[in-house]
Structure formats: C-alpha cells, structure tokens
Design goal:
heterodimer; A: 245 residues; Rossmann fold; 7-stranded parallel β-sheet; B: 155 residues; alpha+beta; 3-stranded mixed β-sheet; 5 helices; 6 strands; binds guanosine-5'-triphosphate; binds magnesium ion; binds zinc ion
C-alpha cells in the first residue's frame, strides 16, 4: 500500500535551510549581506572596487568572492584594502548557501564578522541560476551592462524579477552604442516594477552617490529590523541559539 | 548545466525528508514536482540529470514526475488574470501594465512523494533480511555523512 506525503516542500529546501542559517548569523552579527549577480563581465568587480574605496570610511566591509576560475578578482579587491575571501565553487555556475557558509568559516579566521557593517557576495558571472539559489543575503543586486543590449531583462527575466536593485553599468559607453538606456530601464520595470534602478559608470563614477544612498537606506532598515527581532545580540547567545538549528 | 546543481539540491532536500522517518528508510517510487515556467529549470534536463544522479543512491529506481506550472499574473489595474508573454514584454494585454503580481509560475516544489516502507512492501523480506537491511542502513549513514550540510561557521 503506497503512502504519499503531501509536502509542498521547496525543491531547494536544503539550500533554503542553509541560507536561513547563514542569515541568522548575519543578523546576529548585525551586518547587511548583499548578493551581487550579473552575466560574466558586466562589471561586478569594477563596481565593488569603486564602492569599497568610496565607502571604506563609512563602513567596515568584507567580500566573499565567487569568481573561482582565477584569483584575479580577489586580488583586485584586496588592493583596495578590504578583506576578500575566495569561495571554492568547483565548476559550479552559481554560489549556493553551503559554499557561502564555507566562506564564512574562512572569514572568521581573519576577522570577527560582528565588526562588519556590510558583507558583499560577488556571485559567479551567470544570468540564469544564481537568482534561484539564496545564500542568506538581505538584498539581491543585479547588474546589467549597456553593452549587453536592452533585451536581456526580457530574455533572462528571473534574475531581474528577483533583484531588489538593478545597476545599469558602463553608461560611459552609451555614446558609442546603438542602445537607449531608457529602454533598458523600461524593460527591467516590465518584469519588476518595484526594482530600484541606478545607472553607473565605474570609469567616471557617475551614479555612485545615488547607489550608495540606496545602500545606506538598506543598511538603516535592516539594522533597525535586526534591533527589533534580536534585542540581545551577544555573539555567544546567538551561537548557542543556532546550535542544532 | 545548472540542472545538475538543482538535482543535487533536490537530493539533499529529499535526504532531509528521509531523516524525518529515521530509523525507518522509505523506498521512494515517485517524486512529484511542480516546476513553474518562470524559473530557471528545464523539466526535461532535470528528469535526465535526476535519473543519472540517483542510480547509486537510496533513491535508485525512483522516478521524477514534473508538472509544469504556467506563468500567470494579475493586472493590478483591472484585476484581470493573464498569461504574460515575453514577446509583449510580459505586460497585461488589457491595460498594458508591467508584470507586477505573479500568481503562479515561480514554483520549484516537491508536491508529494509516493513511497513504501520495506516492511509494508514485503513482510517476509524483513523477517529474513536482517543482515541485508543493516548493510543498507550503514550505506545510508555513509551517504548522509557524504552530503551532510556545511558545518556551522561558529560551531
Ligand atoms: N567602460 C567601462 N568598462 C567597464 C566598466 N565597469 C567594468 N568595465 C570593464 O568591463 C570588464 C569586466 O569588468 P569586471 O568588473 O571584471 O566584470 P565582472 O562582472 O566582475 O566579471 P566576472 O566576475 O568575470 O563575471 C573589465 O574590462 C572592466 O574594465 C565601466 O563602468 N565602464
Ligand atoms: Mg568579477
Ligand atoms: Zn548554477
Ligand atoms: Zn488590466
Ligand atoms: Zn551556524
């Protein structure tokens, strides 16, 4: 007599549980975690280089770097003076929550995450699946460079739908390209009317002030949300609470 | 081929489900999934990678059945339900409004699992198969260890 379990379980439940575990640590450490996603070469590392340099006086930050084919990205970012932990992804086309958990273990050998305000996760360059694998982030940031054309949000809608914020990068190249940035922005809003969209150039620095204002607002809202849900935030207490979780 | 990673994660999720029955080990016949059209998953590729991945595991012999779930949205202007079309930039045909409220199509769900316990399947086997079932549970334990979740970073 066959039994049937009616589950309604997430297919990715195992990843989800690990992601929630990670997020519980982030909350206990009172840091804001950002998952940065895009196609290869859209400008994640270039954006990070500039944002890290500009924000270093405001916040303590660290980066979990998912570009595993080379150590190059990690080296570029270390040059800015922010701790960078390369995450081993094997040949995976995205980061998952367990890989980020492994990165946190390495990070803790170098610093106390409770001292951080912001933790950046640079995902593997890929427009498709990173959007489906949560790593415990508080916000998803998707990048789209103007050189990719204006149809990408419609062709790869899931990532743009899931993003809290979309950065249109390399706008310094617009004079040389047959694309209209307004069309790119309109297509993003077709699949995600609520997305905050900023136009950036990592070369000229255009747009970074507005993007950093958005970060500040996220930092403020998450910090107050954390303060409400965790009135006591001793690292030991939270670690104890997480044992067996 | 991110379906390979999807499959790995599905197997971990099924492993979590199996452990809820411990020490008993369910024999899984069919895993019923619901996969939305507005996800990154190709049902055919997923079925293929699943069949290959379970061959040497406790799920060997089980079948994956996938119910595709169409993308449906609600126009927030007039409340009409519609099927967004990428050719029309996903907007509502009634009011040309962007895709705001998704009703279905984001599912990546294990809807249900058909399974039996070996005892129920064949009581005679259990009576005579003590040694075999012990071997079985030892190999399950190894497997559970092999795919155990990442240790807690502050443990
Ligand atoms: N003109 C221009 N080029 C840029 C800009 N941002 C990045 N680039 C260039 O685009 C290329 C890729 O940039 P990266 O920052 O490495 O892109 P990425 O998204 O980190 O790439 P992966 O990690 O490999 O996926 C580099 O040659 C950058 O110099 C920009 O704002 N303007
Ligand atoms: Mg990079
Ligand atoms: Zn992937
Ligand atoms: Zn309408
Ligand atoms: Zn933990």
């Amino acid at each position: 007599m066959p039994l049937e379990d009616s589950l309604g379980l997430n297919l990715l439940a195992a990843n989800q549980h690990q992601a929630e575990h990670n997020r519980a640590h982030f909350d206990a450490w009172n840091l804001l975690c950002l998952n940065v996603m895009s196609s290869p070469g859209a400008g994640k590392t270039a954006m990070l280089e500039r944002s890290l340099a500009d924000l270093a006086s405001r916040w303590q930050m660290a980066v979990l770097e998912g570009d595993m084919t080379t150590q190059l990205d990690a080296e570029r970012l270390e040059a800015v003076g922010v701790p960078v932990v390369p995450i081993t992804t094997g040949r995976a086309c995205h980061l998952d929550a367990a890989m980020v958990s492994g990165g946190l273990t390495l990070l803790r050998q170098r610093l106390d995450p409770a001292d951080l305000d912001l933790l950046w996760v640079e995902n593997v360059g890929n427009l498709v699946c990173p959007a489906e694998f949560e790593v415990g982030e508080h916000r998803k940031v998707a990048l789209l460079s103007v050189t990719e054309g204006d149809d990408k949000p419609l062709k790869y809608p899931v990532m743009f739908r899931e993003a809290d914020c979309v950065l249109i990068t390399k706008v310094d190249l617009l004079p040389y390209l047959p694309v209209e940035v307004e069309r790119i922005e309109a297509h993003i809003h077709q699949v995600n009317p609520r997305a905050e969209v900023f136009q950036l150039s990592a070369i000229s620095g255009v747009g970074f002030a507005a993007w950093h204002d958005w970060l500040q607002r996220q930092r403020d809202t998450t910090a107050s949300a954390i303060a409400v849900s965790h009135p006591v935030r001793s690292d030991q207490a939270s670690a104890a609470a997480l044992v067996g979780a | 081929m991110h379906e390979v990673d999807m499959t790995k994660c599905l197997l971990l999720s099924l492993q979590e489900w199996k452990l809820q029955h411990a020490p008993r080990i369910p024999v899984v016949k069919v895993v019923h999934l619901q996969v939305g059209d507005f996800t990154c998953v190709e049902p055919d590729a997923l079925r293929f990678t699943y069949a290959a991945a379970v061959q040497t595991t406790w799920l060997a012999g089980s079948e994956l059945r996938i119910e595709p779930i169409p993308l449906q949205a609600r126009c927030v202007v007039c409340q009409a339900t519609y099927t967004p079309n990428p050719q029309q930039a996903y907007q509502s045909p009634c009011c040309n409004h962007p895709m705001e409220e998704i009703l279905s199509g984001r599912e990546l769900k294990i809807r249900s699992i058909d399974y039996v316990f070996p005892e129920a399947a064949d009581p005679a086997q259990v009576a005579s198969g003590g040694e075999a079932s012990q071997r079985l549970s030892a190999s399950h334990r190894q497997q559970a260890e092999a795919i155990a979740p990442e240790p807690c970073p502050v443990a």
